[in-house]
């Protein structure tokens, strides 16, 4: 291949790279906010459940996703209320919030009664229903009890509108009547442990996952909080909301990117400078890697539209593997000396690089089969990056490396030769079998200590301070979360509400037993038409004798006009779900109604105060159309299934590599070439067992990459040693250089703030380290023979 041809190919490649860079820049910066996905739900896989359940999970998660929930605490009641008002005013001054609620608008109790007053003769509590069903029920007794309850809690119905207290009792069981937060001085206040807590909410003007919105909102909150703490000493603020978790996740990812990117870049730079003793190879190696990362980012954005947090950090670690291809070409140049020809050097390394690329792409392709958006994106990112980095070695570097270079640092080559001989010697002959038996005995206890942990919460570390504050807010305010809920389905709204009532009967039994704090569901606020008809029929037995009722009310002192108005309101009308959903009172609860389609209708019921999965699941057992949905538990179960499949995938990958190696190296040598990554995986599993690391899906996915990277090292050594016979140790030095760059990149993931990447990084750190040390054993016969034949000349 002539220098002119090499330059022409390099020019075409450079133009293509610039076009990819322009496209990547547009996708990254030209379409609004940076497309970095910090939404944890978006990174989770679909669980294979009812698609409607997945929709419900997303609806609940984002119902309040763009809202800050703040709880202002102070031991002094006046200061707490003043601090809450000041906080509300300070936040309202910033345009990043579309609305801020601290002080309540003028409140009319009639607004809460009005949606139900016309339907009072159709609504009964369980207790009143049971009492009315008893033979000989005396309404006078209920009337006397109502008249002797002058101090009411919750929403009070005027006596003239509800003389027997049936509507009053029903309203007292509604969610707004049971909330620990009570209107006080135009604020929502709770009193706990000699302290006053005041609720303040702020809705963002944008998404919680938008970087710009996050920063402006948090800056505004910090400024307001500092002002409140200065003006109202002793004030403390609790906070929760998706924006806080998203910001924490973004900050952690940025820290990891900087740590992994900078440390690995500096470490790799120092290594390359020390080995090749010139800045030129360093710059070209990073150029090749930059092309790979650029192509990977553009491809990921084209396919997915956004970059996940996991991919962001993983991309910084990709430096260590993408640089391998250029290192092998640079090593071939350094070892050729004055006889270097760029075209010949390319032909020399091409088989090894193509074989190494194929094994790496196989590992990443298998990673992409997992139905997990974040892992799939990592696989696509790596495939694009590896392919582009390798292509840059074929098309770009030869044109830039026409002249010979200095040889590798002699001390490094001598050290690599000594290490290679020392590691290969025990693997020769009968000693190899003895060493293998010894390694098996050492590894066996580690394997026996292995266990599994599929908890989805290992995916992303949620800051302990935030989770503690969220739990405290939930306890004080009674505001629940939507991680567990029941999905209730029926052919129409009536059947759906009836099925929900059957579920709530069971939930009430758990509440009565003290095993559940309560629940939130629509049927408790809008009973089914069947239940309302039943309640109406019970009351009809009394209203069928209006003279008796009139006399009872007159004896109790009610005026004739009030009695006439009360009796004239009979029979009223049943409460309709569609009409109730249009009232302002339904606003906080509308997300519980999933609506109707051609497949039927659905609603949600939120259990409160229990995380006992078995207890909640048992409550739905045998109820048609009722399903407990627990997204974290479902994803954890999915992780468990795919973690179980991962060992089969790993074995399948090994079997797929065998014929490739058999074709290239012959069936007798193929097992030796494959032995280092296989043994490296076995030793890694033993080490994880000794470290007490529970195996997750991410450990197994990392082992898939250990197989690919380890196979690369074996291929590099077998392919390259035939070209460096006059410089023993030079090829293993380049393999060690590749391993060290990978350890500097992937190994640093073990320090990541993301638990999933920590598992990933630790596994690669161990696997790559073991494999690099085992590679000389795959050439034991050759290296030992060469050492013994050359010993007399030493």
UniProtKB/TrEMBL annotation:
Keywords: Cell membrane, Membrane, Transmembrane, Transmembrane helix. The chain crosses the membrane at residues 259-276, 283-304, 310-331, 352-372, 378-401, 429-448, 642-661, 673-691, 697-717, 729-754, 760-777. It comes from the Bacteria. Coiled coil: none annotated. Its main location: membrane. SUPFAM superfamilies: Multidrug efflux transporter AcrB transmembrane domain. InterPro entries: MMPL_dom, Mycobact_MmpL. It is found in: Cell membrane. Residues 100-408 form the Membrane transport protein MMPL domain. Gene3D superfamilies: Multidrug efflux transporter AcrB transmembrane domain (1.20.1640.10). It is a multi-pass membrane protein. This is MMPL family transporter.
């Amino acid at each position: 291949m002539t220098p002119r041809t090499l330059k022409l190919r390099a020019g075409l490649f450079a133009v293509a790279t610039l076009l990819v860079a322009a496209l990547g820049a547009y996708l990254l910066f030209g379409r609004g906010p940076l497309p970095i996905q910090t939404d944890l739900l978006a990174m989770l896989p679909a669980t294979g459940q009812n698609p409607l359940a997945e929709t419900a999970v997303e609806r609940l998660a984002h119902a309040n996703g763009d809202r800050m929930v703040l709880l202002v605490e102070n031991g002094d009641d006046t200061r707490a209320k003043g601090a809450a008002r000041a906080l509300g005013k300070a936040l309202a001054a910033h345009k990043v919030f579309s609305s801020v609620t601290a002080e309540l608008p003028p409140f009319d109790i009639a607004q809460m009664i009005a949606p139900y007053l016309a339907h009072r003769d159709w609504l009964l509590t369980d207790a009143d229903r049971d009492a009315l069903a008893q033979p000989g029920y005396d309404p006078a007794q209920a009337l006397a009890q109502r008249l002797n309850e002058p101090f009411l809690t919750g929403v009070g119905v005027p006596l003239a509108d509800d003389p027997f207290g049936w509507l009053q009792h029903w309203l007292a069981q509604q969610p707004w009547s049971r909330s620990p937060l009570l209107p006080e001085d135009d604020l929502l206040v709770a009193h706990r442990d000699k302290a006053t807590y005041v609720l303040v909410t702020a809705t963002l003007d944008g998404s919680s996952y938008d970087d710009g919105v996050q920063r402006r909102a948090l800056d505004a909150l910090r400024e307001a909080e500092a002002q409140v703490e200065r003006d109202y000493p002793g004030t403390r603020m609790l906070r929760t909301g998706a924006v806080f978790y998203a910001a924490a996740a973004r900050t952690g990812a940025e820290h990891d990117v900087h740590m992994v990117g900078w440390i690995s870049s500096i470490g790799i730079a120092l290594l390359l400078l020390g080995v090749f003793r010139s800045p030129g190879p360093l710059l070209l190696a990073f150029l090749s890697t930059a092309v790979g990362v650029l192509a990977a980012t553009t491809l990921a954005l084209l396919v997915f539209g956004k970059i996940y947090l996991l991919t962001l950090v993983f991309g910084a670690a990709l430096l260590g593997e993408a640089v391998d291809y250029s290192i092998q070409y640079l090593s071939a140049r350094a070892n050729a000396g004055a006889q270097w020809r760029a075209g010949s050097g390319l032909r020399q390394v091409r088989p090894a690089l193509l074989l190494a690329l194929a094994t790496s792409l196989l590992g990443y392709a298998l990673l992409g089969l997992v139905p997990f958006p974040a892992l799939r994106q990592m696989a696509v990112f790596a495939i694009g990056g590896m392919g582009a980095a390798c292509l840059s070695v074929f098309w770009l570097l030869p044109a830039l490396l026409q002249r010979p270079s200095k040889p590798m640092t002699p001390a490094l080559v001598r050290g690599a030769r000594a290490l290679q001989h020392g590691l290969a010697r025990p693997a020769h002959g009968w000693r190899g079998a003895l060493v293998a038996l010894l390694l098996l005995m050492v590894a066996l206890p580690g394997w026996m200590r292995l266990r599994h942990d599929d908890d989805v919460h290992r995916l992303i570390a949620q800051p302990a301070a935030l989770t503690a504050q969220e739990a405290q807010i939930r306890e004080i305010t009674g505001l629940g979360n939507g991680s567990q809920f029941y999905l209730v389905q029926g052919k129409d709204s009536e059947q759906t509400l009836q099925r929900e009532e059957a579920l709530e009967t069971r939930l009430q039994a758990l509440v009565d037993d003290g095993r559940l704090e309560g629940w939130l569901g629509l049927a408790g606020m809008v009973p089914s038409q069947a239940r309302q008809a039943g309640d109406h029929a019970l009351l009809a037995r009394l209203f069928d004798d209006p003279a008796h009722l009139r006399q009872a009310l007159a004896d109790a002192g009610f005026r004739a006009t009030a009695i006439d108005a009360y009796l004239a309101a009979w029979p009223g009308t049943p409460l309709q779900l569609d009409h109730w959903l249009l009232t302002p009172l339904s606003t906080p609860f509308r997300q519980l109604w999933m609506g109707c389609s051609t497949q039927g209708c659905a609603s949600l019921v939120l259990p409160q105060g229990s995380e006992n999965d078995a207890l909640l699941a048992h409550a739905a057992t045998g109820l048609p159309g009722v399903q407990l949905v627990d997204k974290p538990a479902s994803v954890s179960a999915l992780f468990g299934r795919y973690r179980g499949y991962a060992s089969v995938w790993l074995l399948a990958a090994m079997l797929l590599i065998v014929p490739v190696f058999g074709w290239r190296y012959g069936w007798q040598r193929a097992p030796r070439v494959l032995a280092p990554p296989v043994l490296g995986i076995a030793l890694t599993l033993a080490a994880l067992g000794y470290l007490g690391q529970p195996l997750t899906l991410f450990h197994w996915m990392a082992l898939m990459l250990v197989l690919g990277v380890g196979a690369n090292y074996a291929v590099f050594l077998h392919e390259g040693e035939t070209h460096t016979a006059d410089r023993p140790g030079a090829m293993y030095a380049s393999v060690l250089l590749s391993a060290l760059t990978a350890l500097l990149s992937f190994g640093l993931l073990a320090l990541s703030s993301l638990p999933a990447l920590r598992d990933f990084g630790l596994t690669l750190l161990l696997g790559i380290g073991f494999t690099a040390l085992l590679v000389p054993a795959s050439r034991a016969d050759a290296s030992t023979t060469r050492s013994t034949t050359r010993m007399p000349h030493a």
